[in-house]
Write a sequence for this structure.
């Protein structure tokens, strides 16, 4: 199902809410175990999605969908790196404590 082709506003709202809840769950879990980079990243995704939750008739533009997809890719790279921080290309980076 492609989001941009959905005519039913209720279906679009459900998709946005579902994706939001996934980011929210990851954020909460990450914060709980001290993975603050992940918590910050998912918080930004939530913030982006929140504007579309508040305006359900507004379609998410392709650039924002691409940004959310890149966010998921970055999260996968972080998880693959064992929770270490990675840069935007998925490369591990050092964090000074």
């Amino acid at each position: 199902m492609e989001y941009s082709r959905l005519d039913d506003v209720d279906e679009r709202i459900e998709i946005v809410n579902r994706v939001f809840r996934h980011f929210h769950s990851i954020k909460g879990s990450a914060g709980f175990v001290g993975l603050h980079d992940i918590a910050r990243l998912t918080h930004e995704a939530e913030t982006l999605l929140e504007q579309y939750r508040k305006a359900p008739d507004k379609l998410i533009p392709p650039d924002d969908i691409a940004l959310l997809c890149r966010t998921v890719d970055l999260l996968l790279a972080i998880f693959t790196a064992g929770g270490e921080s990675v840069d935007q290309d998925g490369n591990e980076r050092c964090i000074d404590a």
In short: The CA atoms of residues 14 and 53 lie 9 Å apart.
